Amino acid sequence: MKILLDETLGFTTELFPEVLIKKITGKGGRSLEENLTKKRAFIPQKFNAISVNMDEGIDQLRSYMSGFDELLYIYDPYVTNQGDIKRIRNWIYPNQKLFLVDGTKNRGYVFFLLTKLQESTYEDVMMSLRGVRQHFRITSDLHSHSPSRYLQLKNPSTKMYYLLGSEGTKKAIKGSKQELITKVIEYSPAETIYMASSKPVSVKESHVHTITLSGISLPVQSETIDIFI
Questions:
Q1: Could you give the CA distance from residue 82 to residue 96 in angstroms, rounded to a whole number?
Q2: Entry pTM
């Protein structure tokens, strides 16, 4: 099985050499990196990815699958049309299998997947997830993953952080970044925890695995830590 990730998710081949990274190009032909690092005359600006038609999408995915019958595509629905890739999945089946994961829902989960797939098959990893699992998000913006905010290219505000669970914003807990990280660790003192963060975090506990995502990723208007337990 090959593994493909959208560039905007922040995972790199330096961290996971076995994966493929799909580069995302913005309008004007500028790369994601150019859009994030170029000097901007005013803020906020919004990143607009160039869309591809269905035939181009099929050709792209088949090129990534070259020599393989299965592809795990961890995608970013803010820059990739998930309706199109789901249709492509149906069209190429059963000759080829395309497994889809929305990587923006929780990058801690993506971190977990990529780690486990280094030693297990996709089917075995999915079997291990049949029990109840927890996921959390610590963010400096309650609405960081709304369509209107996710693609904005402006500096993040880090005055206040919020801890969100699967219930969403209704039960958000306020605090400093370190206070909220500690709260999650104390909530699950015996469980293996996977944290994927946009900025480095300080964690000493051996059962907590952390990864700092690439700065060439989205969103940039908020600092985010995704946690999967």
A1: 18
A2: 0.93
